[in-house]
């Protein structure tokens, strides 16, 4: 009975954020509490598609123990080339509440993960904040990673201050036409720039510690055997035909933030069936394009970054969204 009352109190507290939803830059204003879906494709009912150790993030996130990844259903951006379309389109997931989400965080921590990795949870932010509060009261102590598309409201990000230790945003496009064509978000470049600035304001210094936990030594640079405890790591996925745009993004990030942030330069673009006939997105990124991308980053002085080795653009690297751990 007490748990039921707790759940009811939490539901009443968070309903206000879903009634006229402006959690993301779409500002669709939908009353998600009335069973209607927002631009994210979700009502106010929390949906999670998978909660498990994840080994395929950057070395400073996954390490050797894994990242405790929680994949949320729905997405506010819905890129046409998305490799997680099963969840971004709301085709997979289990309905739960904030109390159960808090339990999931604690269960992952018990598996000795390096962090709790919140994957595309923007549209469920009120649930996430409540769940983190509950879990922290019960001993949640690992870093919280906010893994997002970069299409974030600054006001919403401000509500996460004090809850998130590591921001892991994408910076997908600098070109407005690409953003509109691929994600129906012409304002993406401006939104992402403002969002990343807010993330850096909250976490202005990248801090690393030994993954083993046997030493309390900290480092301000990524080292082998160390994992990120605080900071901002921006991901930039090189798209087919997108080399010049990718250069602009990396150039912008380096100019404004230098070694204050880390940049992950990704080659894992995977041609999904939804875009296999697309004149641009239906092609793979060539080895030469990716090497030119890395060379540019090196030439302008990027030293705080990660690159990917070959063979990562395979569907086998996409996890099963079978509600495992939910």
Structure description:
The protein is α/β, with parallel strands linked by helices. It is built from ten helices and ten strands. Strands 1, 2, 3, 4, 5, 6, 7, 8, 9 and 10 form a ten-stranded mixed β-sheet that branches. α6 (154-159) links the parallel β5 (144-148) and β6. α9 runs parallel beside α10 (287-299). The longest helix has 18 residues, at 2-19. The radius of gyration is 19 Å and the shape is globular. It starts with a helix and ends in a 19-residue tail after the last strand. The mean pLDDT is 94.
Instruction: Compute the CA-based radius of gyration.
Output: 19 Å
- Estimate what percentage of residues fall within beta strands: 15-25%
Question: How many strands in all?
Answer: 10
Shape: globular
Indicate the topology.
Elements: H1 2-19, E1 47-54, H2 59-62, E2 67-72, H3 85-88, E3 94-95, H4 98-110, E4 116-119, H5 125-137, E5 144-148, H6 154-159, E6 166-169, H7 176-183, H8 188-202, E7 207-210, E8 226-237, H9 243-257, E9 262-266, H10 287-299, E10 305-307
Parallel strand pairs: 2-4, 4-5, 5-6, 6-8, 8-9, 9-10
Antiparallel strand pairs: 1-2, 1-3, 7-8
Helix pairs in contact: 4-5, 9-10
In short:
With 326 residues, the chain is an alpha/beta fold.
Features:
single chain; alpha/beta; ten-stranded mixed beta sheet; 10 helices
């Amino acid at each position: 009975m007490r748990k039921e009352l707790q759940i009811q109190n939490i539901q009443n507290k968070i309903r206000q954020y879903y009634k006229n939803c402006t959690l993301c830059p779409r500002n669709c204003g939908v009353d998600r509490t009335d069973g209607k879906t927002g631009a994210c494709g979700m009502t106010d009912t929390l949906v999670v598609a998978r909660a498990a150790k994840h080994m395929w993030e950057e070395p400073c996130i996954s390490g050797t123990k894994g990242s405790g990844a929680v994949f949320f259903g729905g997405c506010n951006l819905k890129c046409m080339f998305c490799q997680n379309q099963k969840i971004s389109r709301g085709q997979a997931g289990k309905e739960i509440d904030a109390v159960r989400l808090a339990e999931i965080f604690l269960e992952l921590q018990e598996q000795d993960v390096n962090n709790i990795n919140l994957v595309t949870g923007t549209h469920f932010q009120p649930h996430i904040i409540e769940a983190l509060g509950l879990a922290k009261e019960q001993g949640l102590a690992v870093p919280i990673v906010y893994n997002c598309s970069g299409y974030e409201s600054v006001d919403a990000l401000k509500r996460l201050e004090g809850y998130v230790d590591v921001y892991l945003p994408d910076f997908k496009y600098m070109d407005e036409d690409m953003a509109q064509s691929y994600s129906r978000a012409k304002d993406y470049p401006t939104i992402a720039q403002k969002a990343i600035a807010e993330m850096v304001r909250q976490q202005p210094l990248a801090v690393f510690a030994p993954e083993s936990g046997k030493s309390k030594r900290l480092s301000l640079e990524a080292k082998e055997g160390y994992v990120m405890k605080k900071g901002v790591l921006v991901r930039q996925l090189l798209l087919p035909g997108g080399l010049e745009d990718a250069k602009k993004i990396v150039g912008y990030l380096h100019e404004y933030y230098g070694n204050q942030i880390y940049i992950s330069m990704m080659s894992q673009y995977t041609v999904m069936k939804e875009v296999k006939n697309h004149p641009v997105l239906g092609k793979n990124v060539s080895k030469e394009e990716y090497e030119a991308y890395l060379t540019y980053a090196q030439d302008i002085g990027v030293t705080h970054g990660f690159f990917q080795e070959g063979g990562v653009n395979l569907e086998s690297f996409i996890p099963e969204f079978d509600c495992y751990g939910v």
